[in-house]
Amino acid sequence: MTTLEKIVSLTKRRGFVFPGSEIYGGIGGIYDLGPLGVELAGNIKTAWWENIVRKRDNIVGLDSSILMNQKVWQTSGHVESFADPLTECKNCHLRFREDILPKDKKCPNCGKNNWTKPQMFNLMFKTHIGPVEDKASETYLRPETAQGIFVNFRNVVDTMRVKLPFGIAQIGKGFRNEITTGNFLFRVREFEMMELEYFIFKDQSEKDFDYWQKERMNWFISLGIKKQNLRFREHKETERAHYATRSVDIEYNWPFMEWGELEGIANRTDFDLTAHAKASGQDLSYFDEEKGKKMVPYVIEPSVGVGRAMTAFLIDAYHEEKDRIVLKLHPKLAPVKIAVFPLLANKPDLVKKARSIYQLLTTNYQLLPVAWDDRGNIGKRYYAQDEIGTPFCITIDFQTLEDDTVTIRDRDTTKQERVKIDKLAKTLEEKFS
Ligand code: ATP
User: Fold this and answer.
1) I need a labelling partner for 42 at 20 to 30 A (CA). Which of 102, 135, 330, 359 fits?
2) Closest by Cα among 250, 343, 229, 342 to 304
3) Residues near ligand 1 with C-beta < 6 Å?
4) Rounded CA gap, 167 and 317, in Å?
């Protein structure tokens, strides 16, 4: 059975994810991405960006700052409402988020059921801009990237000749001082978000909401997550964020909780643009040429954390077989695409030939990164590559020296085929396409 502990252990020993500040005992809810984690996260972000921005002619990208004028957060309602209910166990004095306590309301630490009255706790990290620490210099690390999109709405409309419906997409860090962190990258305090604000005509809200629900669900499935592990869940009115009139989560069947949010899709209406226009005195409307008048668009927002998505991709790809553990990651997401091995490390002819093939493949951008491994025996090398999800391993053996062929081993079937070196790059390209 796939457990989170197995994923945490694999990702630590294979260099995907390390606890933050580990040599000092760590820091709650903060993780660092290791060499393979940065590749995997990068591939997830690229796949999202390609699907959302590059393949569509009505969505553009943005990269706004983490720090923003404090007025942004006052106006957006985050200072007032971006809070979770906090309760303290009267027995052990640990604090928890009241709305996600276990069903029996027993303290996850000491097992007692004796809580203080919940109080709302704001999740934004506060900081100061400049050398004076007073109210006027106060601001927050952004808890979502969306506000950077709303405050740049005018800039994008004026520079990009966009026509409604159109979207602005952004990938960037978000910070939330979560009361209870845990379940690995599922709930952390610093994380990357991939957010799209899709601006629409109000009367198209339902249609566009449905469209994005399907698009986002299909994205996860197209990258290998099994259909049966995904579902939609409509939020009840009491659950929705202060800005939303409708919210649907794409939920994943996590091993540590039955179903839980993977991605949120919300109808944020014209709440943010209207509030910022009023507070800033700037015109954040859109000129509807057909109707010949100004209007403030509604917005549909699909929003997902890179780390939360990465956790789902890893869990879904994790397989234990008779004599190996294998991450059956989609080739697009795999942190290493190909590994090249000389059959034996102590045969200079083999090593030289293998090096030339490694060089050949590293000139092909599509196939990068290519790993080189000449340690231990071939079985161990396959085992190591299976654990990190490398789709193909190329072995250079004695036959290579005779007929210029190599073997390609398929990660999922473990089957090997022999291919002429001059056809190798093309064959691999086809396998990845
Ligand atoms: P939750 O109910 O789980 O606290 P939320 O409803 O506050 O989440 P949203 O504001 O909808 O979350 O955030 C959008 C997405 O960002 C989530 O679907 C999730 O993928 C990611 N996300 C939110 N909070 C965290 C976190 N603390 N750690 C990691 N990812 C997060």
Assistant:
1) 359
2) 250
3) 176, 178, 187-188, 191, 193, 261, 263-264, 303-305, 307-308
4) 31
Does position 365 have pLDDT exceeding 90, yes or no?
A: no
pLDDT tens digits, one per residue of 24-70: 999 999 999 999 999 999 999 999 999 999 999 999 999 999 999 99
Task: Quote the percentage of the chain above a pLDDT of 70.
Answer: 100
Q: For residues 344 and 376, what is the distance between their CA atoms, to the nearest angstrom?
A: 9
CA 360 → CA 134, 174, 299, 350, 351, distances in Å? 59, 40, 48, 15, 14
Q: Which two tokens stand for residue 42?
A: 């990068």
Provide the CA 295 distance to its chain's centre, in angstroms: 33
The residue whose CA is least distant from atom 24 of ligand 1 is 187
Q: Tell me which amino acid residue 175 is.
A: F
Q: Return the DSSP state at 67.
A: B
- pTM across the whole model: 0.96
CA distance 381 to 373: 7
For ligand 1, atom 15, the nearest C-alpha belongs to: 304
DSSP-H helix ranges across 133-228: 146-151, 153-160, 205-222
Rounded Cα distance between 412 and 171, Å, is 32
H-type alpha helices, 115-199: 146-151, 153-160
Q: Which domains does the chain have, with CATH numbers?
A: 4-67+144-316 (3.30.930.10), 338-432 (3.40.50.800)
Look at residues 254, 123, 142 and name the one whose alpha carbon lies nearest to residue 193.
Answer: 142
3-state helix, strand, coil in the chain (%, to 5): 35, 30, 35
Residue bearing the CA closest to ligand 1, atom 21: 305
182-206: per-residue pLDDT in tens? Answer: 899 999 999 999 999 999 999 999 9
